[in-house]
């Protein structure tokens, strides 16, 4: 890239720190510069992108070059500041299959009178994901405060109810009447257990150490195979280059145990006929966007099962406390997992259709980009 153009581009903003894909082209459409987000969007390195015809990615580019670059065929349109449109972006790994990415694109001259065009692409799906993560963070924090306050308010009267039932039970001689006090005590204990689970994330102090994620996943796999010894198969697709992460090991075990057990319980029918599968994958993701912040490196872990899928009526609320699709479920496992991962600065998301449910966990490895 020409040093004058490079300096100008970096003088406008730090292009590698933003979450939208940016290309700089010359008057013929050859890519002079691409930022880190352009690498993520195209799946190509900067060295590969630079020098290519940008029309490979955006087929409307020739018309835009005519509008903005000197010598174009439409002089009456030259001098416009910028233009924005909704377009199909032809990303190499998708376009061969005929699936262009729908994107918002804006373009304009980098410097007035210079034969360069600055093009910015915003992937709708990535934008929606980032917005959903941001909403998830905000909602979860407010939700946690409400639940914590509610749990504390329930604890004291619940103890009083149980104590009164015990005193009454000791005074009763009629076995039939004592059955009623037994029910009161039993239900009070059940509710106490539920309250304890709601408060669990706030009680224990996090013990942050260097954690090998594969050791965590192997521990989870062993626990689940002991619980479901027949009919359940684990498939492992581990990236051995994944570095250790700074995290609370016990919390991570709980997170992935909850996700894997949730998957196993959904596979009840397939376990019976021996076709139940849970796939565990690990990868290092570069330039990951988590909650509107970019991280140079992040750990990506997927727990994928071949079960019936998440019921559509709870899919959007699957991480809410007390929401469950299981008759005997408490609805706290996924909420607790989300809480622990958010304490780590990461996110959990789910993609589910009949026959495949994928819980994906993204945890930062590096510090966020400035």
UniProtKB/TrEMBL annotation:
Alphabetical list of InterPro entries matching this protein: HATPase_C_sf, HATPase_dom, His_kinase_dom, HisK_dim/P_dom, HisK_dim/P_sf, PAS, PAS-like_dom_sf, PAS_fold
TM stretches of this protein: none
SMART domains hit by this protein: HATPase_c, HisKA
Residues annotated as domain PAS: 15-52
UniProt superkingdom: Bacteria
SUPFAM superfamilies with a match to the protein in the record: ATPase domain of HSP90 chaperone/DNA topoisomerase II/histidine kinase (SSF55874), Homodimeric domain of signal transducing histidine kinase (SSF47384), PYP-like sensor domain (PAS domain) (SSF55785)
Pfam families: HATPase_c (PF02518), HisKA (PF00512), PAS (PF00989)
Keyword ATP-binding: yes
Residues annotated as domain Histidine kinase: 149-367
Keyword Plastid: no
Keyword line: ATP-binding, Hydrolase, Kinase, Nitrogen fixation, Nucleotide-binding, Phosphoprotein, Transferase, Two-component regulatory system
Catalytic reaction(s) noted: ATP + protein L-histidine = ADP + protein N-phospho-L-histidine
Enzyme nomenclature, EC number: 2.7.13.3
Its biological purpose: Member of the two-component regulatory system NtrB/NtrC, which controls expression of the nitrogen-regulated (ntr) genes in response to nitrogen limitation. Under conditions of nitrogen limitation, NtrB autophosphorylates and transfers the phosphoryl group to NtrC. In the presence of nitrogen, acts as a phosphatase that dephosphorylates and inactivates NtrC.
Name of the protein this chain belongs to: Sensory histidine kinase/phosphatase NtrB
Organism: Mesosutterella faecium
């Amino acid at each position: 890239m020409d040093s004058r153009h490079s300096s100008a581009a970096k003088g406008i903003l730090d292009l590698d720190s933003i979450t939208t894909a940016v290309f700089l082209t010359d008057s013929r459409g050859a890519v002079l510069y691409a930022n880190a987000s352009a690498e993520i969007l195209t799946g190509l390195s900067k060295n590969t992108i630079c020098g290519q015809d940008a029309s490979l990615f955006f087929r409307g580019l020739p018309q835009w070059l005519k509008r903005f670059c000197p010598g174009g065929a439409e002089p009456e349109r030259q001098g416009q500041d910028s233009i924005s449109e909704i377009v199909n972006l032809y990303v190499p790994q998708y376009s061969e299959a005929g699936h262009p990415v729908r994107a918002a694109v804006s373009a304009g001259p980098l410097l007035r009178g210079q034969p360069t065009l600055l093009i910015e692409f915003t992937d709708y799906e990535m934008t929606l994901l980032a917005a959903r993560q941001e909403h998830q963070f905000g909602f979860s924090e407010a939700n946690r405060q409400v639940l914590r306050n509610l749990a504390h308010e329930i604890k004291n009267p619940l103890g009083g109810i149980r104590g009164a039932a015990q005193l009454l039970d000791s005074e009763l001689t009629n076995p039939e009447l004592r059955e009623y006090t037994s029910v009161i005590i039993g239900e009070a204990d059940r509710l106490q257990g539920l309250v304890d689970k709601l408060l669990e994330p706030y009680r224990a102090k996090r013990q942050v150490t260097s954690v090998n994620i594969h050791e965590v996943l192997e521990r989870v796999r062993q626990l689940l195979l002991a619980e479901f010894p027949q009919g359940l198969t684990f498939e492992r697709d581990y990236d051995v280059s994944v570095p250790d992460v700074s995290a609370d090991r016990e919390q991570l075990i709980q997170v992935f145990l909850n996700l894997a057990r949730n998957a196993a319980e959904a596979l009840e029918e397939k376990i019976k006929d021996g076709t139940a599968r849970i796939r565990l994958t690990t990868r290092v993701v570069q330039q990951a966007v988590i909650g509107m912040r970019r991280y140079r490196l992040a750990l990506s872990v997927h727990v994928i099962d071949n079960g019936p899928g998440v019921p559509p009526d709870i899919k959007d609320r699957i991480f809410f406390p007390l929401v469950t699709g299981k008759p005997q479920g408490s609805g706290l496992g996924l909420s607790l997992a989300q809480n622990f991962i958010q304490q780590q600065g990461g996110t959990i998301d789910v993609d589910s259709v009949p026959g495949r449910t994928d819980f994906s966990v993204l945890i930062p490895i590096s510090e966020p980009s400035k």
